[in-house]
Amino acid sequence: MVTVTNSTAYGSLFSSLRSCSEITPPCEIKDGTSDIIEDFNVKCESYIEILKSHTSNLANHHHLSTKMAMRRLQRYMRTIYDVQDTISECLEHFLSGDIQAAYDLFDKTFSSKSKSEHLKNICINLNEICNDDRPLYRVRKSDRFLEDRKELFHIPFKMRHLVSAQRYSVAGLPCLYLGTSLYICWQEMGKPDFDRLYISSFKSISSPTDKLILNFSSELLNSSISLRKDYILRVIPEEILISYLCLWPLIIACNYIKKQPDAAFNEEYIIPNILMQWISKRERSPIIGIAYRSTKITSIKHSNLAINVVIPPKATYKQMTTNLYCPTLSKTFKLTKPISWQLLKTLDYPIKRDTEFDKAIDHIQNREIKNFHEDLVKFYPITDFRRLEKTIDEVLPYEPIEGN
């Protein structure tokens, strides 16, 4: 574990990194750069410059533990360069039309023992982000009545023609997208009319220690969340801190805000798409998905309300032709039946007041709302979003999808 002295050293490093908006998710392609490759390499150069400066300054620190920690970190510089070079070359291959070469290079690099260990180090168990106390949510827009749990699961394999490319979705590969709040689900869908929405709540069926989620939503990457006087750094093992630092170029590449919202192709999605394909193909790997913060609503991007979880199917072609849904995912989650947003609102279910609820009331009564979207986190506990989250979780039964 990281000692207090080490946490101070890493704390100042992460503070320096997080204060540099250029390299902190979400990222934007700067005007004046020719394309994403140039921008990515410029960002990596800025990142490495901060790392080198910090490790050099502290490598001769008077505290032995700080000195040794920074010298250990210096030994990983080659790994960081390797990750950067791999991503840069993957982008070059892809944009020049050699998509297979891009995937093969990505696979070769991140399947290596050292890189795969770094990836596992920055994972969390699925049960940490989805359990009986912390459900995830899914929203679907529909003009017809929905009542079967399957209708709120991932798109059936036989309807894969409906699956378009998204940040972590390859066109034609149905993935299961979930959110930590109904609000983020609604936002990610483009804020559709509430009268056409159906919602379900998801929980992991057990405590699957063998099901890991790549955690791109960590507080370590979150520039507006205080490190609480190094508390986070004191409880996070040093190897995890180092792994995040080694994989920072990958995190940058996966968190670009797309410049053209309605474009048929988004270069910002190249690396996230390859990463998702890679996770999906590795049937024996414990990594099953990715947790990441939304890039669509920058006003609450640093809140735990704004985390998306995407899980691709881990299924063979034969399984996809003989099943409508991924057998593995079907056994991983239990969920509520879909219910109409408007119908659920008619249920005047009493919600227990708690400290967060009372704080939100105080914010409202003190007229502290200056910008509705910016201040939403403060009064979220008294919104319909939270009320419906509580209602669906406490009133409706959870079961796995039936049949397949």
Briefly summarize what is shown.
It is built from 18 helices and 9 strands.
Verbal overview:
The structure is a single chain. The protein has 404 residues and is of the alpha+beta class. It folds into two domains: 4-126 and 209-305, no CATH class; 132-206 and 315-395, no CATH class. The protein is built from 18 helices and nine strands. The strands form two sheets. Strands 1-5-6-7-3 form a five-stranded mixed β-sheet. Strands 2, 4, 8 and 9 form a four-stranded antiparallel β-sheet that branches. Helix 1 (4-18) packs antiparallel against helix 2, helix 2 (36-58) runs antiparallel to helix 3 (64-74) and helix 2 packs antiparallel against helix 4. The longest helix has 23 residues, at 36-58. The protein starts with a helix and ends in a 9-residue tail after the last helix.
Going across the biggest sheet, name each strand in turn.
1-5-6-7-3
> What is the total number of structural domains?
2
Biggest sheet architecture: 5 strands, mixed
Based on secondary structure, the structural category is alpha+beta
The helix content is 40-55%
**Number of helices, where a helix is a run of at least 4 consecutive DSSP H or I residues:** 18
In sequence order, what are the helices and strands, one letter per element? HHHHHHEHEEHEEHHHHEEHHEEHHHH
On the 0-100 scale, what is the average pLDDT? 87
**What is the β-strand count?**
9
| Low-confidence runs of at least 5 consecutive residues | 1-5
Gyration radius (Cα, Å) is 22 Å
Separation of termini? 45 Å
> What share of the residues does DSSP label as strand, in percent?
5-15%
Bulk shape: globular
